[in-house]
Design a protein that fits this description.
With about 210 residues, this protein is an alpha/beta fold. It has a single domain, classed as NAD(P)-binding Rossmann-like Domain (Rossmann fold, 3-Layer(aba) Sandwich). Helices cover about 35% and strands about 20% of the residues. It has eight helices and ten strands. It has helices at about 10-20, 35-45, 50-60, 70-75, 75-80, 110-115, 155-165, 180-195; strands spanning about 1-5, 25-30, 50, 60-65, 85-90, 120-125, 140, 145, 145-150, 170-175. Strands 3-2-1-4-5-6-9-10 form an eight-stranded mixed β-sheet, sandwiched between helices. Helix 1 links the parallel strand 1 and strand 2 (about 25-30). Helix 1 (about 10-20) runs parallel beside helix 2. The protein is globular. The termini are far apart.
């Protein structure tokens, strides 16, 4: 499968590496195509480097792993046209500058804001609840990490769930895209536990079943 990952930061780089491991054809995209960080991320993951429009045009799926504040600048008219009809996996979180709270919530979500910008795409919220540090270790403490997947298009959501399972996560259907309103605050809880409570970033969510 051809997958474009927009963002060469911690999450984008780690996810690109996992996808390449599973033999997907991955293209990494960053705001500065010539940045050393992008080059290093591509070299480490085995992904190619591309531009947003070109990568989106040929990709089957596109992952948004940029800071939420960069979404408007990223989604130019050309990029939005290239993403028409595509499955777009929104892995962003609308975090405040201190990373300890959200700038959007309660009556909407970052995922819904992204969908508003991409009305011709199939936006699915996923991978935003997993720390970059544990994207490469889907099993923590003997249990697979929970990967909630929320979206309004059943086929797009199923495709992302299958991708999550392929990567080793306990990927589940988390309902409509509006449920991103609850998934995004879960990340803030993890951040609070990791940094203010001193648990570190090698933590994740797990769903127990009877």
């Amino acid at each position: 499968m051809k997958i474009a990952v927009f963002g060469a930061g911690h999450v984008g780089s780690a996810l690109a590496a996992r996808l390449v491991e599973r033999e997907h054809h991955v293209t990494l995209v960053a705001s500065d195509p010539g940045s050393p960080r992008l080059a290093a991320a591509a070299a480490a993951s085995g992904a190619e480097i591309g531009t947003a429009v070109d990568a989106a045009t040929v990709a089957d799926h596109v992952v948004l792993a940029v800071p939420f504040a960069a979404i408007d600048d990223l989604l130019t008219d050309e990029v939005r046209d290239a993403l028409a009809g595509k499955v777009v996996i929104d892995a962003t979180n609308p975090l405040a500058p201190d990373f300890m709270s959200l700038t959007v919530g309660h009556t909407t979500s970052g995922g819904e804001r992204v969908a508003e910008r991409l009305p011709r795409s199939h936006v699915v919220k996923a991978f935003n609840t997993i720390f970059a540090a544990t994207l490469g270790t889907p099993t923590l403490g003997g249990a697979a990490q929970l990967l909630p997947v929320a979206g309004d298009d059943p086929d797009a959501k199923r495709a992302v769930i299958d991708l999550g399972i392929q990567l080793g996560f306990d990927a589940i259907d988390a309902g409509p895209l509006s449920n991103a309103r609850y998934l995004e605050p879960a990340v803030v809880l993890l951040l609070q536990l990791a940094y203010r409570q001193g648990l570190g970033t090698n933590i994740g969510l797990h769903l127990t079943r009877v």
